[in-house]
Amino acid sequence: xxxxxxxxxxxxxxxxxxxxxxxxxxxxxxxxxxxxxxxxxxxxxxxxxxxxxxxxxxxxxxxxxxxxxxxxxxxxxxxxxxxxxxxxxxxxxxxxxxxxxxxxxxxxxxxxxxxxxxxxxxxxxxxxxxxxxxxxxxxxxxxxxxxxxxxxxxxxxxxxxxxxxxxxxxxxxxxxxxxxxxxxxxxxxxxxxxxxxxxxxxxxxxxxxxxxxxxxxxxxxxxxxxxxxxxxxxxxxxxxxxxxxxxxxxxxxxxxxxxxxxxxxxxxxxxxxxxxxxxxxxxxxxxxxxxxxxxxxxxxx
Length: 301
Prior knowledge:
alpha/beta, five-stranded parallel β-sheet, two-stranded parallel ribbon, globular
C-alpha cells in the first residue's frame, strides 16, 4: 500500500512499484491518484486525521510505503496529519500484520546546516518548523515498530512545486545568477528516490544494515550550479554576477520565500548517502549532470 499516492513522490512510487509487478493499494485523501501504466491497483479513500477511516485499510497488505505528509499549513494541521495520523496508520498496520513500513521523511528534521558528508548516526534532529517537528514525530512512530525512514534533502523532477520553483523565486528576487556560491547540497531526482523507496520495501531483511537512510545522489551539487541550471530554464535568465551572500540577504529582505531559499543555500547541506546504495547493491541510474538536459521538460517556463 502506498499513501500519498496522488502526491509528487507518492505517484512516482506507485508507478515504480507497478513496473515491478506489485499488487497495489493506493491511498489518497482528496485527489485521485494517477493509474499506474502497469500492474493491478485499487484505490482507497482515507484521511489520516480520521482514525476510523483507516480501519481495515491495511488488511492483506505486506508492505506499507508511507509517502503522505502535511507540508506547511497550520501547526495543528501538521500535528493532526504527520504526528497523530502516522501514529494511527502505524497502529492499523500493526493490527493487520504488515511486515514492513517505509516512511518518506526529510532531512529538514535536522534544521539548518552546515552539514558536510553527514551520516544519520552522527546527527541529532533539530527541527525548526511545525512541519519538520511533526514529521520527526512521524518518524518516531515508524521506528518504534521496526520500520524504515528515508530522508532526502532536495528532490526535483516532474511535478515538483517546491524545490526548483523556490530557487526560481530567489533568482527573481536577486535579479541575477550568483556565480561563486560553493556551498554543497544533496539532490536526487524523484524517479530515483521512488525506486529507492520501493527497493527498501522489497529488499531482504538481512541486506538492510540500518533503519534510517539518507537518499541522494552520492556527489553533492554547489549552490551556484543549482541556480545556474534553474536560470537556464527560464525565459529571461538573470545575468551572472559575483554576488556575495551578505549582499543577497539585503536584496531578499522581506521576501519570505526567497529568504527561505537563500537561508538554505547559505550553508552546506550534504548528507552522506553511501549506505542506501551499498545496502541495495547498486549505483544511481542517473546523476544531476545527466538530469540537467531534461529540466526544461519538467519545469515549463
